[in-house]
Design goal:
- The chain is an alpha/beta fold.
- The protein starts with 8 loop residues before the first helix and ends in a 15-residue tail after the last helix.
- The chain has a five-stranded mixed barrel.
- The mean pLDDT is 82.
- α1 packs antiparallel against α5.
- The longest helix has 36 residues.
């Protein structure tokens, strides 16, 4: 067995420096992509509930689809209450089961559904709303998990669905509803239904890029380690045949 083969000092230092540079670059780029992924998620999950209210028609039109980035945004809307209110079942408040009181508020040529408050049981007197009103509340998307209404003839709905509510009024409905910050007479404040949460696929491309860069850095470190190991492994001298006896 011969002595270990060692690369020259400059070669050894150069290889180590190159490996460090490649690992450092890969790690930095991976961190950059990871931060971009997190930034996308934070931007999608921003909480708008405490910002200054804006007029509803500054956020969307009555024929527009719901603007997802404005989920939970405080809005102001004024108009006149219409008949056609209803209750929404299975809405809790402080851990207590109950119902939401919902009424259409006409503004312009259309009406927006307004959650006026919460009650432990449906009550026709609490549901009634008339006259003009100015409402400040949080913007929410219409629901639609295809829950079946066991009794379509009553005033209790399982969800706030525009397709169901539009049959109760003579005007178009906005593709959104508003949870009033101030409950109506006899009602308690309704808890905010939904806040923005990031989708599982939000920024996933950046996350995959980050993983790719980190794998590249690990591969560069492995190549250097493998080269260093092979460069310092002793050479095995070939075995010579033993001389023949006699």
């Amino acid at each position: 067995m011969t002595a270990p083969r060692r690369p020259g000092l400059l070669i050894d230092l150069g290889a180590a420096a190159l490996a460090l540079v490649l690992v450092g670059i890969a790690g930095t780029l991976g961190k950059w992509q990871y931060d971009a992924w997190q930034m996308h998620r934070d931007a999608e999950a921003r909480d708008l509930t405490s910002i200054t209210p804006v007029p509803l028609d500054d956020v969307m039109g009555n024929d527009d689809p719901f603007p997802a980035p404005d989920l939970g945004r405080p809005v102001e809307v004024s108009g006149e209450w219409l008949d056609g209110g209803f209750w929404v079942a299975d809405r809790s408040s402080g851990g207590k089961p109950g119902y939401w009181a919902v009424a259409p508020l006409q503004t312009g040529d259309a009406a927006v559904l307004v959650v006026r408050g919460w009650a432990p049981e449906p009550d026709a007197d609490l549901l009634a709303a008339s006259g003009e009103a100015e409402v400040t509340g949080w913007l929410q998307p219409p629901e639609g998990t295809l829950v079946v209404d066991d009794d379509p003839s009553d005033d209790v709905f399982p969800e706030i669905r525009v397709a169901d509510a539009v049959q109760r009024v003579d005007v178009d409905l906005w593709s959104a509803y508003v949870i009033s910050q101030e409950p109506g007479p006899g009602l308690e404040e309704a808890e905010l239904a939904a806040l923005p949460t990031p989708s599982r696929t939000t920024g996933v491309r950046n996350l995959l890029y980050a993983v790719e860069w980190w794998i590249f850095g690990a591969f560069a470190a492995y190549i250097w380690w493998r080269w260093r190991r092979d460069a310092t492994t002793p050479d095995l001298a070939p075995e010579l045949p033993s001389p023949s006896a006699g």
